[in-house]
Amino acid sequence: MADKIKITIDGKEISVQKGSYLLDAVKKTGVTVPTLCHHKDLTPTGTCRLCLCEVEVRGRRKLVTSCNYPVREEIEVYTNSEPVVNHRKILAEMYLGRWPNVPAIKYVAEMCGITESRFTSNLTDENPQACILCGRCVRACREFALEKIIDFAGRGIKRHLTMPFGEVDPHCIGCTACAFVCPTGAIEIVDDLNHPLDPQMIRDHGMKVNAEMAVLDKDQCRMREVGTANIVDVMDAYDLLPVHNYQFGTHPETWRINSKMLKARYFTQGQADGCWKGCSMACAKTIDDFELKTGPYRGQKVCVDGPEYETAAGAANMGCFDADFLAEFNFYCDTYGIDTISAATTIAFVMESFEAGAITTEHTGGLELHFGATNETLELLHQMADGRGFGVDVGQGIRWLKQKWVKEYGADPDFLHDIGMESKGLETSEYVCKESLAQQAGYGMAIKGPQHDEAWLIFMDMVNNQIPTFEDKAEALHYFPLWRTWFGLMGLCKLCWNDVVPADNYATDEPHKIPEHVDNYFKFFEGMTGIELDESKMLDQSARVYNLQRVMCRMLGYGAREDDHMPYRAMGPVTVKEYESRAERYDKQLKEIIGVDPDGKITEERVGILRRYREDQYEKVMDAVYIRRGWTRNGVPKIERLRELGIDLPELVVIVEKDQE
Amino acid sequence: MIVVNERTRLEWRDGMTAQDVLDAMGYRFSLITVTINGEFVPKDDYDEHRIPDGADVRAIHLHHGG
Fold first, then answer.
1. In a 3-state reduction of DSSP, which class is residue A526?
2. Cβ-based burial of A29 (10 A; exposed 0-12, middle 13-18, buried ≥19)
3. Which candidate from B43, B46, B60 shows the least CB-CB separation from A511?
4. What CA–CA distances, in Å, run from A430 to A339, A343, A376, A504, A570?
């Protein structure tokens, strides 16, 4: 972490991070040195050499380009010594001789005390927007867009910028990063695509994200490096990774499927190969030449699109800590058109039911479906796709299985209901939410069922304690589902909202909302349509759709309070084993939060007391959320709310009429 | 005694740094904003920034998953 070095700049002592660049240290002291090729968001190259400083290392002096000189030891720095000034003057005169009318050149030359040049020649270019060969565009192409469309060719006086073979490269996706960083305007943008009202506004805000990806991502979420698989490591560390059907939140063998393992042994492609070419986040990762061991393509080498977090966490949920299995499961789910989350959550439920004796090999067609049974899981997946054996049943999902097993096999309905992680018939996505009431409600109250695309509040609630009251949670469960619904409707990705964060985000009033990125999205909308947005307008736009969705949900028989409940597994420990695995935590909560002394009580009693408390809390948070959303106590939009939003259409009113209070 | 995120109490000791608090809490996430008595602490200073007794420490994890 902190590895500081004290250096002296023009006699002033300053403490800097070891390995940081000298130019940044110089700037900190308030000294300005001229630069041309430097750009704050691009890797420094020292090309223009104007940022020269004199450095004294162990008694020896030398000239260095400060922009790419890493400070590694104690040094004395002179930014304005005689050799420095003389070098800069000569350089400035040469630049001015070649490009006398480029404003950026004139500006830095003046900083160096040069207004006339002796070096006019037949190379002199009078164009005020001439390319000055600074190379920023080349770096932006590589670092912002992860492409190599533009580069230098020729040497010496013949050096020039070009695309391969001097032709327009069809691989250029027109991201305009090159033009964005060009200090002279030499690269012209021709906007002729979707006719946005203000393309410049869209570009300027999009380019900020590109720059953040190039500069910040490597120390933040490593989306470029490993994609969302990075979350496996984080969730495991915070006891939030679903293990053995959400019983536990961490596992000693997670390292077998985490991002380090996937990067070291599996991922082969690390370029912008994702959902659209040109995305500077490029989080989609791929495994090339993966040899399948099972199924119809056994023995063939294939390309696996992934795995991303949910798929890897699904493997943990099934207890299958084996990256070969993970890749094969990922490939076949994709190939069969089966959702990896629903498949993994359903199979995890099947496994726990099998281990608890609710079903046996008699019901599974002989498959020993213990946690971690990789071969049997893949066989089950093939059966699901082929429509044969036990796979036919499992393919129907958890709700259907529960009903069949209770009715036909005499299974305990309460136990199955507690451990079957579905709501509204949809399987839960891959996060343990036992310690976050807001996330339990985020899942349970999501319109489509417990997916995580409406609200992901685990850190805000469980770790940060930012939303302690029911009203706070309700506000979060009002804002985030509407915000996420809104950008989803606009076709904007979630990941460049909060999987990279501006360096100064901490200083904002509401850092959890990532205000600058919310503003980026508003500007994309405004740049496209010309309509200015703010939070209130955005929430209204979104609420119209969100409430319409809820009415449709009600029409389909799922949009009321009883449908917004989660199985108890989502809320707390169902079994004694589960309680005892985190006994210290739960006992402490009994004592400090509920006010019950666990001493002298057997575990079953403790499980019961905790359960009654948590279920009561869930009811209270539902009440608060319904009030905040303008819905009835039964979770149905009030007619007056529909009217307020301008969607009190007769065909909608008739659906919710009977639910009004 | 110091309080982390208005909830967890940690025993204070002389020389305690921001990094010590993060370690004690098991906070290893990359997108954490730390403030001590309302004052922001840059990541580079975690090892050196001393925590006073009675401090109100916030370690805000930004949204990520989901």
1. helix
2. middle
3. B60
4. 13, 11, 21, 31, 11
Judged by a CB distance cut-off of 8 A, whether residue B12 touches chain A is no
pLDDT score recorded for residue A1? 47
| Closest to A305 in 3D by CA, of A335, A329, A285 | A285
CA distance A17 to chain B (A): 8
Q: Which fold has domain A4-80?
A: Ubiquitin-like (UB roll) (3.10.20)
Give the one of B40, B44, B46 whose C-beta lies nearest to A507's C-beta: B40
Question: A437-659: which CATH number, 1.10.10.10, 3.20.170.30, 1.10.599.10, 3.40.190.10?
Answer: 1.10.599.10
CATH assignment of the domain containing B14: 3.10.20.30
Residue B5 forms contact with A (CB below 8 Å)? yes
Enumerate the residues of chain A whose CB falls inside 8 A of the CB of residue B58.
464
User: Residue A7 in 3-state DSSP?
Assistant: strand
Largest CA distance in chain B: 39
Nearest CA in chain B to A442: B66
Q: Is A363 helix (H, G, I), strand (E, B) or coil?
A: helix
Query: What residues contact A557, with CB distance under 8 A and at least 6 apart?
Result: none
Taking the complete model, does pTM exceed 0.90, yes or no? Answer: yes
A308 CB neighbours in chain B (<8 A) are none
pLDDT digits (tens, 9 = 90+) for A200-217: 999 999 999 999 999 999
A222-427 CATH choice from 3.60.10.10, 1.10.569.10, 3.40.50.1260, 2.60.40.10: 1.10.569.10
Decide if the complex's ipTM is over 0.85. yes
Measured CA to CA, the distance from residue A375 to residue A377 in angstroms comes to 5
In a mutational test of the B interface, the residue from A1, A428, A435, A504 whose CB has the highest number of chain B CBs within 10 Å is A1
Q: With CA atoms as reference, report the closest residue to A326 among A313, A343, A345, A339.
A: A313
